[in-house]
Amino acid sequence: xxxxxxxxxxxxxxxxxxxxxxxxxxxxxxxxxxxxxxxxxxxxxxxxxxxxxxxxxxxxxxxxxxxxxxxxxxxxxxxxxxxxxxxxxxxxxxxxxxxxxxxxxxxxxxxxxxxxxxxxxxxxxxxxxxxxxxxxxxxxxx
Length: 142
Known about the structure:
- This protein is of the alpha+beta class.
- It folds into 2 domains: about 45 residues, no CATH class; about 90 residues, Sandwich (Immunoglobulin-like).
- Helices cover about 25% and strands about 35% of the residues.
- It has 3 helices and 10 strands.
- The strands form 3 sheets. A 4-stranded mixed beta sheet has the order 6-3-9-10, with no helix packed on it. A 4-stranded antiparallel beta sheet has the order 5-4-7-8, with no helix packed on it. It has a two-stranded antiparallel ribbon with strand order 1-2.
- Strand 1 and strand 2 form a beta hairpin.
- The N and C termini lie far apart (about 60 Å).
């Protein structure tokens, strides 16, 4: 039905579209400085490393490895007895995403101790505390 030569649908739909656009600001595309700021923030977040901190309370030095499903283990470094080692996870490990776990290999032994699985995101920190009895060790993601 037409009123004054204009379709009724347009008369009702135009104010409704304007109302929805104002009510949902995220639905409208971002332009200018806002769009650049958002993309810069997202890029910085994916570039942020994941730091792994290993506190070795064991009497043996340990070699620490990171392992991700479908990939081999990657050596992070050595942590001497009574010390704290800090390592950055390789970027390719963080970018692929998914769960990973850590392995502590006490130097001079044939044993390996594995952590629980964790899923750290860029910018987070993994803290693994190795106890004298390695089975009592704990891992936390912050």
